[in-house]
Every structure is written in structure tokens, then in C-alpha cells.
Design a protein that fits this description.
Ctk3_N; single chain; ENTH_VHS; 12 helices; Serine Threonine Protein Phosphatase 5, Tetratricopeptide repeat; about 260 residues; CID domain-containing protein; Ctk3_C
Length: about 260
């Protein structure tokens, strides 16, 4: 494929991107497979970020995170350099400086924690980002505290003061990016799917192997004696069966 076709296919993958790990991995793997066009593909991600709402941008961050991880393993510096150079812009787009930006802040922190290990030359940028995120959370806490103080205030505001408060609230709402119910519900489903995938990692359990007992008195064990007496001798049919099972096992190991 030429550069134009690669760009079109990658944009299509981005438009169909979901929270599912398979979708994120497929998109990141495409970028790695065509890493000779890394600047072009990286621009596609930024273009898609600008046209996506804040709730959808977290999935794009996870694509970048997977690309960083795969580039680090394959020693490909192209995407690592681009992420490092545009680190501040990435954070500003994933977590814009408004109320909606706080929605993605926890997911962003987890990704940045991993990037700090890989992108060691960007320590100053990480410090700047940490200060920004800390300030955003602090301002959000202050706003919540002020709201609680106003609600607990025993002095009943007059009509003029009440109207002023309503205007401020209305202005604050207009400054925040408007999100439809469908977008909010989609983010809830995405978070639910993401949390389910995380929990699946803890569902894997290993069966404990039984302890071998060497001092057991088998001669006095009725169950053992019954099996010993009734178990048939090894014959030609048993040998054929064992050979067939061995061939099946070898075929499975080849696949």
C-alpha cells in the first residue's frame, strides 16, 4: 500500500475504535506494522483527537500507550520521539482545562506513570504535567468545598443575590463542553468494559497440586486394592490407543 491508502485505513480503524483491548491492539499494531509512515500516522491520531469528544479521547490515549510499549520493545524510536515532543499537547487534549477534563485524569495518570519509565528524557515535561494535574484537582476540590459552604450557609439569600447565583451557574454550564446522554452512556459502558477486563486478570487461578504421600499403606487401602485387582493388563489395543493420543498431542504442539 502507498502512503495515502495507509492513511485511509488507519483513519478507518480510529473511527471504529472502542474500549475493547482487541480494538486498541489492532489499531496500535497497524501503526507499528507501517512504522515507516510514523509521522503521518501520528498526525492522524491528533486529527482524530480534535474531532472526538473528551470521553472518547481516553481510548486514543490507550492506543498511544500501546504504541509506546510496542516501540520500546522493538527498539523503534520514531513514535517514542513523537510522543515525547508532543507530550504537553497530548495531555492538554486528553485532559482539557475544564470540568470535563477531570473525567480522564485518573486514566491519564496511570498511562503517564508507565511513560515516565520509557521517556526518561522528558522528565521536565512530566514535572510540568504533574503540577498542572495537581492544580486542576485542587481547584476542583475548592469548588466543591465552596458549593458545600454555600449550601450550609444559614443566611437565606435575597432574590437579587439568588438571581446572580443562577446566572453564574448558567454561565459555568455554558463554558463546559456539552455532552449528550448517548455519549455519557457510551462512556459508562466503556468504563464498565475496561474494569471488567482489568478484573479478568485476577480471575486466573492456579490449581494447587496435591501433595505426594510416600508413606501411605496401600495394601490396607480397600479402594486401591479394588482398582489393582480389577484393572486389566496392558494389551495391544491399549498400545494403539496410547500411540494415537501421542500423535494427537504432537499435532497440537505443532499448531
Amino acid at each position: 500500500m502507498d502512503g495515502f491508502q495507509i492513511r485511509i485505513e488507519f483513519k478507518e480503524l480510529l473511527s471504529k475504535l472502542t474500549v475493547r483491548p482487541e480494538s486498541i491492539l489492532k489499531t496500535a499494531q497497524f501503526a507499528i506494522d507501517y512504522k515507516s509512515f510514523h509521522e503521518n500516522l501520528f498526525d492522524c491520531i491528533f486529527e482524530h483527537v480534535h474531532t472526538s469528544n473528551v470521553l472518547e479521547r481516553l481510548n486514543l490515549l490507550y492506543v498511544l500507550d500501546r504504541m509506546v510499549s510496542m516501540s520500546n520493545k522493538t527498539k523503534f524510536q520514531g513514535y517514542l520521539d513523537l510522543v515525547s515532543q508532543n507530550l504537553i499537547d497530548i495531555v492538554d487534549n486528553i485532559v482539557p482545562n475544564n470540568s470535563t477534563g477531570l473525567i480522564n485524569i485518573n486514566g491519564l495518570k496511570k498511562v503517564l506513570k508507565k511513560w515516565k519509565v520509557v521517556l526518561k528524557d522528558s522528565s521536565e515535561k512530566f514535572e510540568e504535567i504533574d503540577k498542572k494535574l495537581e492544580l486542576m484537582e485542587q481547584n476542583d476540590n475548592n469548588n466543591h468545598n465552596n458549593d458545600n459552604m454555600n449550601e450550609n450557609n444559614k443566611i437565606k439569600p435575597d432574590h437579587q443575590h439568588h438571581s446572580l447565583q443562577q446566572k453564574r451557574k448558567h454561565s459555568k454550564v455554558n463554558n463546559v463542553e456539552k455532552m449528550t446522554d448517548d455519549v455519557i452512556m457510551k462512556r459508562i459502558e466503556d468504563d464498565r468494559e475496561r474494569h471488567k477486563r482489568i478484573k479478568e486478570e485476577f480471575w486466573l487461578t492456579f490449581r494447587k497440586q496435591p501433595e505426594l504421600v510416600f508413606d501411605r499403606d496401600f495394601e490396607s487401602d480397600p479402594e486401591f486394592n479394588d482398582c489393582w485387582e480389577n484393572f486389566s493388563d496392558l494389551n495391544e489395543n491399549d498400545k494403539i490407543l496410547l500411540e494415537n493420543e501421542s500423535l494427537k498431542y504432537k499435532d497440537i504442539m505443532k499448531t
